[in-house]
Amino acid sequence: MVDTELVKKTVALMGGFDDEETEKYNQLILAASLSVSELLDKSTDEKDARVIQLAAAKAYNSICCIAENAESITSFTAGEITIKQDTDLKSFADAVLSAAMNDCRPLFKSALELDEANGFAFLGV
Fold first, then answer.
1. Got the DSSP string for 31-55?
2. pLDDT tens digits for 80-108?
3. What is the DSSP string of the chain?
4. pTM of the model
5. How far apart are CA 29 and CA 6, in angstroms?
6. Quick check: 109 and 40 in contact, CB under 8 A?
7. pLDDT tens-digit readout, 4-26
8. Average pLDDT taken over every residue of the chain
9. Rounded to whole angstroms, how far apart are CA atoms 63 and 20?
10. Using an 8 Å Cβ cutoff, are 40 and 107 in contact?
């Protein structure tokens, strides 16, 4: 399985989280690590930096989805002063995840192996 401690450290760097904040996302980090492990070819080193990056990007993407839904207020005005939050973390997280997926494509199981693992293979008519 992908090393969740390395994934936690990478997620913390991506989000600028401290240890306490990162701990809140343990379940998402574990799920992302397991998900990535399922995709990898048997010969792939699960401590490969690309693998860690992919698991962290998957977890960070989930964290950004949660944060985006929780933060419904993007601006407020008090008198003549307006404060506006203009960050688009979800787009950033999507771009990081997409890049990480592309980097890891050579490390994934073949499509046939994935189908066999799921118990289904469509080989022809």
1. HHHHHHHHHB-TTS-TT-HHHHHHH
2. 776 665 556 778 888 888 888 888 888 88
3. ---HHHHHHHHHHHHT--HHHHHHTHHHHHHHHHHHHHHB-TTS-TT-HHHHHHHHHHHHHHHHHHHHHH----EEEETTEEEE----HHHHHHHHHHHHHHHHGGGBPPHHHHHHHTT------
4. 0.70
5. 10
6. yes
7. 999 999 999 999 999 999 999 99
8. 82
9. 15
10. yes
Residue 42 one-letter amino acid: K
Q: Which region, left, alpha or beta, applies to residue 44 given φ > 0 means left and ψ of -120 to 50 means alpha? A: beta
Answer for the pair 97, 58: CB distance below 8 angstroms, yes or no.
yes
Q: What percent of the chain has pLDDT over 90?
A: 46
